[in-house]
Amino acid sequence: MDQEQILAKITAMVDDERRLRDAAASGQIDSATEHERLGQLERELDQCWDLLRQRRAKSEFGENPDEARVRPSSQVEGYQS
């Protein structure tokens, strides 16, 4: 996945997040469903941002950005800012 594809996926997931919040606010889905789906989206978003950072770092240091790989959410979620 190249940088543009990753950014498009991030944008789509952010849109999904907004739709979920709107659906919960309007009573279309319950809060438990919203919480579960948002948690999944947040983990996937973190993985996408991590992949994007990996690709940019590899490019910056003269490495092949296509060698960047999606890391497990358990690894990505353990990072601290």
Automatic annotation (TrEMBL):
<dbReference type="Pfam" id="PF10944">
    <property type="entry name" value="DUF2630"/>
</dbReference>
<feature type="compositionally biased region" description="Polar residues">
    <location>
        <begin position="72"/>
        <end position="81"/>
    </location>
</feature>
<protein>
    <recommendedName>
        <fullName>DUF2630 domain-containing protein</fullName>
    </recommendedName>
</protein>
<feature type="region of interest" description="Disordered">
    <location>
        <begin position="60"/>
        <end position="81"/>
    </location>
</feature>
<feature type="compositionally biased region" description="Basic and acidic residues">
    <location>
        <begin position="60"/>
        <end position="70"/>
    </location>
</feature>
<dbReference type="InterPro" id="IPR020311">
    <property type="entry name" value="Uncharacterised_Rv0898c"/>
</dbReference>
